[in-house]
Amino acid sequence: MWYVIQTITGKEQELVDLVYKMLPKTVYKECFFLKRQLLKRLGGEWLEVTETLFPAYVFLDLTNADEVFYELKRIPEFSKLLGDNLGEFIPLEEEERKFLELLCANESPVNNADKGAGYYLVRNTKVYLDAQGEIERLDGPLEYFKEKIIRLNLRKRYALIETAIRGEQQTAMLGIKLEKD
C-alpha cells in the first residue's frame, strides 16, 4: 500500500536517501518522489528542465505501516505521515494510487548515484493539434487525464490537471511539447 510522507520542500531526495539508509528493506517495497519535465523558453530557445511535481511529498510503498511508523520518527527530515486527523497513518485511496501509477507508466525510477533511492520522471506529453488548434491526440502521461485538464497553455507549454492526494485537492502542472517542437 502506498503512503505519503510530508517533508520540507526541496528535501525530498534527502528524505528518500535516509529512508533507504535507515529502514530495513523488508518493511517497504519502494520510496520515491515525482519530478516532471517542463519546457521553458530562455533566450528564444526551448530548454527542457526538471522540477519536483508534488513539492514536499515522498511516497512510500509499505508492507506493514505499523512497523515503520516509529522507525520513520527517527529520521531527521521526516515531517509527518499524511493520514487522518486522529493520527492514523492511512494509505492512498485506490484511485489516487492509480493516478500516480499512470503518471509514471513505462518509466523506471531515476536513481541517485549508488544509493538505490530515487524519483520517477513524468515526461512531457506530445500534443497534436488539428487545423482549428484543438487537441487531436496526446502521447504521454496526459493522454490518461484529458478530462482532468483544467488549463492548457500551448504558448508556455504546460497543462494543469486537478487531482486529490490524501483527500486534499492538488493542482499538478505537467509539461507538453507541440508537434512542431
Automatic annotation (TrEMBL):
Pfam families associated with the record: NusG (PF02357)
Protein name, per record: Transcription termination factor NusG
SUPFAM superfamilies xref list: N-utilization substance G protein NusG, N-terminal domain
Annotated organism of origin: Clostridium symbiosum
InterPro entries: NGN-like_dom, NGN_dom_sf
Matches recorded under Gene3D superfamilies: NusG, N-terminal domain (3.30.70.940)
GO annotation, biological process: DNA-templated transcription elongation
Residue span(s) of domain NusG-like N-terminal: 2-98
Keyword Oxidoreductase on entry: no
Residue intervals passing through the bilayer: none
Keywords in alphabetical order: Transcription
Keyword S-adenosyl-L-methionine in annotation: no
